Amino acid sequence: MSLAHEVNSRHGKPTGSGSPGNSGESHVDGDQPRPVAASPRSDVDHHRSHIDRLIDERRPGYCLDAPFYLSDEFYAEDIEAVFASTWIFAATAAEMPEPGDFVTLDIGSYSVIIIRDDDENIRAHHNVCRHRGARLLTEAAGSLGNIVCSYHQWTYSPEGDLMSAGVQAPDFDRSCFSLRSVNVEVVAGLVFICLGTPPEDFAEVAARIAPYIEPHALEQTKVAAQVDLIEHANWKLVMENNRECYHCEAGHPELTCTFFPTYGYAPEDIPKRLKPAYQRFLAAEERLAENSRRNNLPTALIEELSGRPTGFRIERAALDGKGESYTMDGSAASAKLLGDLDTPELGRLSMHTQPNAWFHFMGDHAVTFSLVPLGPDKTLVRSTWLVHEDAVEGVDYDLENLTAVWTKTNEQDAALCARAHQGISSPAYLPGPYAPTENDLEEFCTWYIERLKAHRTQTEKQTAERQTAEPQTAQRQSAEPQTTEPQTTDQGGRSR
Ligand code: FES
Ligand SMILES: [Fe+2]
Questions:
Q1: 348-367, pLDDT tens digit by residue?
Q2: What residues does each domain of the chain span?
Q3: How far, in Å, CA of 110 to CA of 325, rounded?
Q4: Which residues sit opposite 226 in a β-bridge?
Q5: What SS3 class is residue 440?
Q6: Neighbours of ion ligand 2 (CB under 5 A)
Q7: In testing the pocket of ligand 1, which one of 131, 148, 164 has its CB within 8 Å of the most ligand atoms?
Q8: What are the DSSP calls for 398-433, one per residue?
Q9: Distance (Å, rounded) from C-alpha 242 to C-alpha 381?
C-alpha cells in the first residue's frame, strides 16, 4: 500500500506543512547521508508531509492508523528510523561458539555479518565487499577461516581487515579497505547490533539487565533448536501481539498450562473466572521469591519501555503448574540446569527489548525471540532454544518436549497477527482503543513514535548542516585541486 492510497485516517487533509528534512535519504555509520532513489520533488514532499502528519497526530491510547501498518513508506521509515537507528537483538553468542562461526542478518537493504574472531570476540561487519560492493556471504550461518568475496576473491579476516586483493597498483593501501564495521555489544550472551549512530543509553541498560541474565550462563549454552517463522503481518502487529496476554486464555491452550493468564491485569481488575489462577499465582510467587533469594537472583520489575532510545522491561515471575519451565506440565525440559542454579523452580525471567525481541530464561533452558521486518506485511520471527552446553538430546532433554509450547504458541500467534493485518487492510478499519491490560502496547507505540520523531529531528539537522557545508565545499573545490585519497569509514565497537 502506498500513502497515495491512504484510507481511513482519523484526520483531515494534509496540512502541506511537512518537515523540510528527511527527503528520501538514508545513512549508515554516521557517514554523510547518501541519496537514494530520487522521485519528483513534489511526490517526495507530499509523502513526507503525510508521514509527518500521521506521526504528529497519533492518538494516545489507540492502535495506529492503517498506513503505519500497511504502507511502503512507513516500512522504509521503520527500517531507517527504528531498525537502523536503535540497538536491535541480532543473535545469541551460542550460535557462534567457535572462532570463524558466523551468522548473517538482513534488515531492509542492509546485510550484516556477525562473526566470532580469532580472539573469540564477536564482531559485526556490513556484508558488502570493499572492492565493487558484492554481497560477501549469502548463507544464513556457517563457519569460515577468512571471508572471501566470490567475485574477485578479495579476502578479509574475521576482524574485517583486507588480507589480500590480487594484483593492485603499487600505492594500493589494503588498510584503507577493511570491511565497514557495525556496532556490536554482547550482554550476558545476547548479541545486539546498531547499524547507525548508537544511542548512548545502551551501556546503562546493559549494566542493569546483565545481573538478571548472567546467572543463566548463556555463554555455556548451546542451540538445541532454532525455528524461523514468516508471519504475514506488519512487524508492529507482531510486537503488539506479543506484548499482551489479553488473547492468551482463548488463543493459547498450551501456553496457559504454565503462563498465568492474569498477566497484565491489575489485581483489582482480575475477572472472576481468573481468580483461581490468581490465587495459584500468589502462592507460586512466594515459592519463587524464596528460591530466588537462595540463588541470589534479582527479581524486581524494571519497566522503561518508552521515554528512552533503548526501551526495555525485565522481571522474574512465577510459572503455573510445576513452576519450572515452559512445558505442558511446567516441569523442567532439560535435566542439566543452567549455570550454578540449584533448582529448576525459578519461574521465568522475562525480558523485552524494543524494538524487536523478547526472551524467557528459565532454570533449565532459555528461549529467545527476535523479529525482522521483511516488508510491510511480512515479518520473520526467529525462536532459539538454548540448553546447557553439556546437555545431550535424548538423554537430558527431548526436543519435542522442549519446543512444543512455544512452537504451538508461535503458530497460534502467527494466525492471530495475520488476521489482524487482514482486518486493518480493509477500508473499514478504524484504530480501536487499547484495553488496560494492553498497557505495554501503548508503551510500544509511544516509544515507536518517539523514535520516528527523533530520527526526523536528526535528519533535519543533517540536512541543514549539509546545506550549510555545500556552498563552502563548492567554493573550496573551485579553489583547490581535487583529492582522490580513499577514506576509511570503519568505526564502532566490539566486545563480548
Ligand atoms: S566485488 Fe568483491 S572482490 Fe570484487
Ligand atoms: Fe500470543
A1: 999 999 999 999 999 999 99
A2: 91-185, 199-437
A3: 36
A4: 384
A5: helix
A6: 413
A7: 131
A8: -HHHHHHHHHHHHHHHHHHHHHHHHHHTSTT--PPB
A9: 11
From the number of C-beta atoms within 10 Å of its C-beta (0-12, 13-18, 19+), residue 78 rates as buried
Q: What CA–CA distance (Å, rounded) separates 31 from 462?
A: 10
Q: Is 132 in the pocket of ligand 1 (CB under 6 A)?
A: yes
pLDDT at 22 over 80: no
Please state the rounded mean pLDDT for residues 262-272: 87
The CATH number of domain 91-185, selected from 3.80.10.10, 3.30.1330.10, 3.40.50.10540, 2.102.10.10: 2.102.10.10
pLDDT band at 43 (very low <50, low <70, confident <90, very high): confident
So what's the architecture of 199-437 in CATH? Answer: Alpha-Beta Complex (3.90)
Atom 3 of ligand 1, residue of closest alpha carbon: 152
pTM above 0.85, yes or no: yes
Instruction: Answer yes or no: is the C-beta of 83 below 6 A from any ligand 1 atom.
Output: no
DSSP labels, 443-464: HHHHHHHHHHHHHHHHHHHHHH
Q: Which H or E run contains 303?
A: strand 302-304
Atom nearest to 153 CA in ligand 1: 3
CB 174 within 8 A of CB 186: no
484 touches 93 (CB < 8 A): no
